[in-house]
Automatic annotation (TrEMBL):
It comes from Terribacillus aidingensis. It holds the Pfam family AP_endonuc_2. This is Sugar phosphate isomerase/epimerase. Keywords: Isomerase. PANTHER family: BLL3656 PROTEIN (PTHR12110:SF48), HYDROXYPYRUVATE ISOMERASE (PTHR12110).
Amino acid sequence: MRNQFSLAHLTALACPPPRLTYIAARAGYDFVSIRPIAMKLKNEPDYNLAKNKSMLRDTKTALRQTGLQVLDIELAKIEDGMEPKQYEPAFEVGAELGARHVLCSVWTDDEVFANERFIELCELAKHYQLTIELEFVPVASVATLKQAVRMLQAAAQDNAGLMIDAHHFHRSKENVGDIKRIPASWFHMFHLCDAVKEIPSAKEQMLKIMREERLYIGEGGIPIKEILQQIPKIPYSLEIPHLQRVKELGFEEYARRCLVSAKKYISLFQDDVNIS
């Protein structure tokens, strides 16, 4: 079975889902990953497909015409005061589009509250045949692999998974060997990217790299090969935002180069890992 790749929305966030889908197809991707739940950050576009019915229709058309599938939707944040039901319209849209997974991260320090809401999210997602993929983020409340594993163990939900982002794994100073102890059934997708080896000490600089300056696969200092050696074969979502390169190359050519770099990097050691 060949490797499969998705174009993550953050790589080309300025592109609405229909345009993102056509770009992904022309660039050679197998999936597209879309963001119908806005993170409410400054200058971030809002692609609320549950409310924007015309954009939803156009997205369905783009998927039908290209033959691409939706790998995941994002981002179901667990933060103080949130209720899982607020994400149900997006879950319904995700199911309509054939999505498989929903990304989730935790931004509250109330561990009991977070665990309860995570279980509720999983239960809600079951109605739409979706999994909830917990992503640890170094600037969030669940910031490490250990914290994410503990939360998944406590939840004990059969539609919950662990979503590792190569950038976050490296920035959280994780040990590659710890992945061996994670159940293979928890892995459904992986965020593939690269970044400079040096870990910024300032949160602002880390955020800037995370959202604006990630690198082509093999260009930076993240131990990508070693990480991939420890996980089963799953789709790789290329989340590689780099604003300057997009300005220079345009979204489609940049997306194509991201994919080329990933395929080239993996081909160098394909026979040695679980990605043959």
